[in-house]
Amino acid sequence: MSLLNQKTTTTSMEWDQFKSLISKLERDGEYKFCLLISVGVFTGLRVSDLLQLKFNQFIGTEFLNIIEKKTKKDRRIKINSDLKDLVERIKLKMNIADDDQFIFVNKYGTKPIDKSYVNVKLKELFKKYDIHLEGNVSSHLFRKTLGNRALKLNNYSNESIILLMELFNHSSPITTKRYLGVRNSEIESIYDSLKL
Predict the structure, then answer these.
(1) For residue 20, which of 38, 32, 36 has the smallest C-alpha distance?
(2) Measuring CA to CA, which residue among 10, 34, 18, 37 is closest to residue 149?
(3) Longest pairwise C-alpha distance within the chain
C-alpha cells in the first residue's frame, strides 16, 4: 500500500531479463516462483487469478479457461507450447502426484499462497538475482512484461494496443497505454529525438 501522495509504479522486465530469471529460478529450485512468473507473463492474468490455478488446467488442453475474479468475465487463453513444456517439467521436478493441486500452494499444502507473500518474495528474488527495475517490484510486472513484449514485437502499432486492451480487459486503449507506460515513453522519445 502506498503512502499518501506517493506515486507507485510497476514497470516491466526486458524479455532477456525474464528468460534469464526463469532459467535461474529453475536451476536454483525456486520452482513455485519460476512457474508463477512464467505463467503470469505468458497468460497476462492478474495475480488473484494466477493463484487459483491448478495443474490439471494445463493437462490435455491447448487452452486455459477461467472466470476472472475482478471482472467476472470468462477468459480463454491459448497455452503457449514453451509454457506448457515448462509447467510439465517443473511439475515432475516438484514430484506432484495430484493434478488437482493448486500450482502455487502454501507451505501447509492447504490453499494458494497469499498475494502479499508473492510481492514480498518477488522483491527478495529480484534482490538476490540483482535485477534492477524502475519503479516498484510487484506481481503487476507479469502483465506489463507481456504487454510491452507484444508492443515491441508489433512495432508499437495501434492494432497491438487494441488487442492488449482486450487481453487485459481494459475499458479503452488509453487505459492500456497508461497501464503500460506507453504515453510516457512516447513523450520521452520526443526529447531524445532532438539533435544539435
Answers:
(1) 38
(2) 18
(3) 65
What's the CATH number where 115 sits?
Answer: 1.10.443.10
Q: Provide the pLDDT for residue 67.
A: 92
Look at residue 101 and give its three-state secondary structure: coil
* pLDDT band of 6, cuts 50, 70, 90: very low
Residues 2, 7, 8, CA angle at the centre, nearest 5°? Answer: 65
Domain-located, residue 112 = yes
Residue 43 in any domain: the answer is: yes
What is the span of the domain harbouring residue 52? Answer: 15-134
The cell for 86 is: 515448462
> For residue 72, is it within any domain?
yes
**Is position 56 within any domain?**
yes
CA-only gyration radius of the chain, Å: 17
pLDDT on residue 83: 96
**One-character DSSP codes across 22-72:** HHHHHHTT-HHHHHHHHHHHHH---HHHHTT-BGGGGSS-SEEEEE-TTT-
Overall domain count for the chain? 1
Q: Which three cell numbers stand for residue 147?
A: 504487454
The Cα 38–Cα 19 span in angstroms is 9
- The answer to whether 87 touches 35, Cβ cutoff 8 Å, is yes
Given its phi and psi angles, is residue 151 left (phi above 0), alpha (psi -120 to 50 degrees) or beta? Answer: alpha
